[in-house]
Specification:
This protein is an alpha/beta fold and about 260 residues long. It folds into 2 domains: about 80 residues, ATPase, nucleotide binding domain (Nucleotidyltransferase, domain 5, 2-Layer Sandwich); about 150 residues, ATPase, nucleotide binding domain (Nucleotidyltransferase, domain 5). Helix content is about 40%, strand content about 25%. The strands form 2 sheets. Strands 3-2-1-4-5 form a 5-stranded mixed sheet, sandwiched between helices. A 5-stranded mixed sheet has the order 8-7-6-9-10, with helices on both faces.
């Protein structure tokens, strides 16, 4: 079984994978921990599902928080007795990155792009609803072309609360009516449907440009991330929601680099 770890700015997601099948998944808050704290946490999560250190034959890490990478990597070595594959420079992706500076593209974005292309074997826009919302475009030949980065849904909500004197902090949820009858529902409808509009327009434009540039004839769109189901259910441009897209991308990356 392979352990894949996706360290994001808000959450860390761990997956126990049997090939591309997700056997178990855990999501915890991203925060500073010592190597021993992280190692013991890993063992406790595995034990809770009846797994031991011996059941894990390999590990792959994607991390967008540089200050945490050392801790997670060292915890795998000390407590799981594994030398993990870390997504970064020198790792073979099998995907040509056609951007101005390929080295600056986030590891998580390449992983999502790889998994999305494998899913469809066709041009695709992969949307990740994380702390930031990212859209990543892959052409029909499997080349990564770039994409868009927008403030995440929660960031938008927090900004509205922090930058206004009288508006309260509200829960992020879908509203049935766009016309709010009070301050709370007015904020919720503005945040939710405004964000749906942002995502749909970016996705629509990404699809159109791929076709107009001759990079694809048909473009699929898949969404993942913690808020993918909340927002994605109302986005007309999203064809599918895959909660495990990043985890499957890490398995694919591991296979291309370390699998025998």
């Amino acid at each position: 079984m392979l352990l894949v770890i996706d360290v994001g700015n808000t959450n860390m997601v761990f997956g126990a994978m049997d090939d591309f099948e997700v056997k178990h998944r855990w999501r915890i808050s991203t925060e500073s921990r010592t190597t021993d704290e992280m190692g013991l946490l890993l063992l406790q999560l595995l034990k809770h599902k009846g797994l031991t250190q011996e059941d894990i034959k390999g590990a792959c890490i994607s991390c967008v928080v540089p200050s945490l990478l050392y801790t997670v990597e060292k915890a795998c070595r000390r407590y799981l007795k594994l030398d993990p594959l870390v997504v970064g420079k020198g790792v073979r992706t099998g995907m040509r990155v056609r951007t101005d500076n390929p080295r600056e593209v986030g590891a998580d974005r390449i992983v999502n792009a790889m998994a999305a292309y494998k899913k469809y074997n066709a041009a695709v826009v992969a949307i990740d609803f994380g702390t930031a919302t990212t859209l990543d475009c892959v052409n029909a030949q499997g080349d990564y072309l770039g994409g868009a980065i927008a403030p995440g849904f929660r960031i938008s909500a927090d900004a509205l609360f922090l930058r206004t004197a009288k508006l309260p902090k509200v829960e992020l949820e879908k509203t049935e009516s766009v016309i709010g009858k009070n301050t709370i529902t007015s904020m919720q409808t503005g945040l939710y449907w405004g964000y749906v509009g942002l995502v749909d327009e970016l996705a629509r434009r990404c699809k159109s440009e791929l076709i107009e540039l001759g990079e694809a004839n048909v473009v699929h769109c898949v969404a993942t991330g913690g808020l993918a189901r909340l927002v994605g259910q109302s986005c007309s441009e999203i064809d599918d929601i895959d909660d495990y897209l990043t985890l499957r991308g890490l398995v694919l990356l591991y296979e291309r680099n370390l699998s025998n």
